[in-house]
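Box 4.2: Ligand-aware structure prediction
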Amino acid sequence: MENKKFNFKENTAQALLDSRLRKNLKFAMGAMIQKRRAVFSNAQELEKLRVLGNSIRRRALSKLPELLEKLENKCTENGIIVHWAETTNQACEIVLEIMQKHKADKLVKGKSMVSEEMHLNKFLEQHGIEAIETDLGEFIIQLAGETPSHIIVPAIHKNKDEISKLFHEKIPGTPYTEEVEELNAIARKTLRKMFYEGHVGLSGVNMAAAETGTLCLVENEGNGRMCTTVPPVHIAVMGLEKVVEKLEDIPPLIRLLTGSATGQLITTYVNMITSPRKAGEKDGPKEIHLVILDNGRSKILADPQLRQTLQCIRCGTCLNHCPVYTRIGGHAYGFVYPGPIGKILTPQMEGLEKAGAMTTASSLCNACEEVCPVKIPIPELIRRLRNESYDLNGTVQGHGYKKHFMETAAWKAWELVNRIPALNAASTKMAGLFGHMLPKAGPLKEWTHTRTKPVFAQKSLHETVKEQGVAHE
Ligand code: SF4
């Protein structure tokens, strides 16, 4: 996260005041949900595929160290140079070193959430290197000076009018137009020149097969292929969980990913990168680097329950179906990963003290779990993280930060009252007599603010039963 202090409550309140944002999101999410539904119209087939996807991801995570070692060996054998980074800063330094070695001052980038996690563009800018986003959505938000608001469609929060205005103002010599084809042509023309100017290309990795050392990259615009083919050097960055065991594990995951993300059977481009340009080949980079980033993932892997977070294939469909995300958009979350996946991933990476408030933004309606193509039990993990916020013996960084003396005392008192029959009877009597005075101010304000105050019975169950002469033990 950038240095700005994270205040989720404030961000949410601000976002809810933005009616244009909600309108844009409602329109876009509705379309994405329909497309996904159409491509997965056979529920039984989808379920079978999800079970398969889940087992592929769980198998990969169960032998992750071994697979990563194999991936490194295979990639090295194929001529790809492998780097390991424990922190995002180390990963940035590795990219910088490669750029400096090649005396490169322009980086053309395909879409990569890991590079967002690294805040790579800003880091490179501080070292005099220009990073140019070439994915259309990323290009739009780079022009606007914003961060992505969705993990698949980064500029989803913007409508056509806003983009028209942005192109007109930010791309020199561009006339104002609201024609989609013309807007596409403007972006295409602007970016095409940049591919040739970029000395180094950077991409993410959707999956990497340990068996063959193959990096798989799915995309629709062809910009990913340009970034990984035109510049003489290609750098691929990936989170260490992206590895799968075999090449044959990739097709079912692609089917789940593209169907869930964009409602497509398959994307326009599926790039399988196995080596740099070989002797006699006419195109392709002469040098390929793979940067494998940890950034807290090993710690997540060590916990058998929380490990399920790493099954994620970043399809973004949990965002599209989340009643919270679809009202507030991605920027309100304040970190790189928004929506349901962000709620479980970010607090584990950044710590509960810093990002734990996100876990409160869930109605636990289970929509995210129902649509997740690899069956991550997101609500269960949200509950776990919520509990850890209060638990002094928890394992997640920042656990117990919400534990408060008053709350502990209140629960102790509750326990006492319910253990001693006389106290229980007295408190029930008091609640019946004075419960209607339950305050709308003070510590109970938050609760009564959005809920109807409970009406306590005038008599306890014991009294009623006794009066009515019902036999009981
Ligand atoms: S948690 Fe599931 S639904 Fe959400 S982005 Fe990851 S794979 Fe997709």
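In the box above, the bound molecule is iron/sulfur cluster. The pocket of iron/sulfur cluster is lined by residues 260, 312-318, 340-341, 371-374, 376 (CB under 6 Å).
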